[in-house]
Design brief:
Elements: E1 4-15, E2 18-30, E3 35-39, H1 46-53, E4 61-66, E5 69-70, H2 76-79, E6 86-89, H3 103-113, H4 118-131, H5 148-160, E7 166-170, H6 178-195, E8 198-202, H7 206-212, E9 215-220, E10 223-229, H8 230-236, H9 240-247, H10 290-294, E11 300-301, E12 307-308, H11 316-320
Parallel strand pairs: 3-8, 3-9, 6-7, 7-8
Antiparallel strand pairs: 1-2, 1-4, 4-5, 9-10, 10-12, 11-12
Helix pairs in contact: 3-4, 3-5, 4-5
The structure holds adenosine-5'-triphosphate (ATP), iron/sulfur cluster and magnesium ion.
Length: 321
């Protein structure tokens, strides 16, 4: 059974300037223990998608099924037994940490609310601190006494305390120094091995996603434009937007540089209040044709779980070469 199954999800925000469809007709699945990356430029709807899955952004249309339960329309009371299965890790752990509470209280709070006794909570908090690489003495200290990387470890421990099956990580390392980034990514990786937890890993840093994710989803103006295994996307991406994103990312191994045909991203991201007709990428695509302006491309299957939303096989020959 799929751990998460999302069908035709739409999230729209109305303002006095008009309606923004931040998430448009997105369908996706996540398998138990899978590490799925979600990438795209700022404002394309990554956080909104993550928040909608958590049911903290309003779902306008579509369905979210978590571990066999359709959670789309559950109220707060009905969501309570489901919440432990899916937790979120934020870019700024302070957003989920009360600075006046000790780290032990912060991490253990979900268990307190679930009615555990203090001895049980203490044992589990120590277990978690060890798992995220912090000493048990950290439980008695306050969040401001820790570095950014350590605070992110505290945020991860808190997210893990209820043994979730899925962690939605929204830019979890973007605010950290490069050296600390690698440590946190390795920690998330180890936790996957130990706990079998699955990830939706949101980041605009493609080299981090390349390192971490098994599979990658690429978003543009609220839609998925490509998805596939990390290997497939880096070697054989089929959407000009994905190619442009990858071209802008340093390739660690110079021998692999030829694999991403260089595509330069030109023009501005369109105003989400007035997206282009037809293919949303049309205003920046050098391959745009008449059909693209008329008809939005559906996400279609290429092979081996590789999907693309483009009318044409633009890079076929290049791939075969
Ligand atoms: N609560 C809200 N009310 C109105 N519009 C919103 C709201 N939240 C997000 N949006 C709009 O939805 C779109 C997607 O925003 P979102 O924060 O999901 O993008 P993002 O991909 O996470 O960007 P970033 O990489 O900068 O974090 C943007 O146009 C944003 O202005
Ligand atoms: S459908 Fe047309 S505009 Fe959109 S990516 Fe493909 S070629 Fe470019
Ligand atoms: Mg965001």
């Amino acid at each position: 059974m799929k751990l998460l199954s999302v069908k035709d999800l739409q999230v729209s925000f109305a303002s006095r300037h008009g309606v923004v469809h931040a998430v448009r007709d997105i369908s996706l699945d996540i398998e138990p223990g899978e590490k799925v990356g979600l990438v795209g430029e700022s404002g394309c709807g990554k956080s909104t998608l993550g928040r909608a899955l958590m049911r903290i952004a309003p779902i306008t249309r579509g369905n979210v099924v978590l571990d066999g339960t359709d959670i789309t329309s559950l109220n707060a009371y009905q969501l309570r037994p489901i919440r432990p299965k899916m937790q979120m890790v934020f870019q700024d752990p302070y957003s989920s940490i009360n600075p006046r509470h000790t780290v032990g209280k912060t991490i253990g709070q979900p268990l307190e609310m679930a009615g555990w006794n203090s001895g049980q909570i203490k044992k589990r908090v120590f277990e978690l601190l060890e798992q995220v690489g912090l000493p048990s003495s950290a439980a008695l200290r306050y969040p401001h006494e820790f570095s950014g990387g350590q605070r992110q470890r505290i945020g991860i421990a808190r997210a893990l305390i209820l043994k979730p099956k899925l962690l939605i990580c929204d830019e979890p390392v973007s605010a950290l120094d490069v050296s600390v980034r690698a440590q946190i990514i390795n920690l998330l990786d180890d936790l996957k091995q130990e706990l079998g937890v699955a990830y939706l890993f949101i980041s605009h840093d493609l080299s981090v996603v390349h390192h971490f994710a098994d599979r990658v989803l690429v978003m543009y103006l609220g839609r998925l434009v490509e998805s596939g295994t990390t290997e497939t996307l880096w070697r054989n991406s089929a959407h000009p937007y994905t190619r442009a994103l990858l071209s802008a990312t340093p390739v660690p191994d110079p021998r692999r540089r030829h694999e991403a045909r260089r595509e330069i991203l030109t023009g501005e991201l369109p105003n989400p209040l007035t997206p282009p007709a037809g293919c949303a990428f049309g205003s920046r695509c050098k391959y745009v044709q008449e059909r693209c302006r008329r008809e939005p491309p559906a996400l279609r299957s290429l092979q081996h779980g590789h999907h693309v939303a483009c009318h044409f096989d633009l890079f076929n020959q290049n791939n075969a070469a």
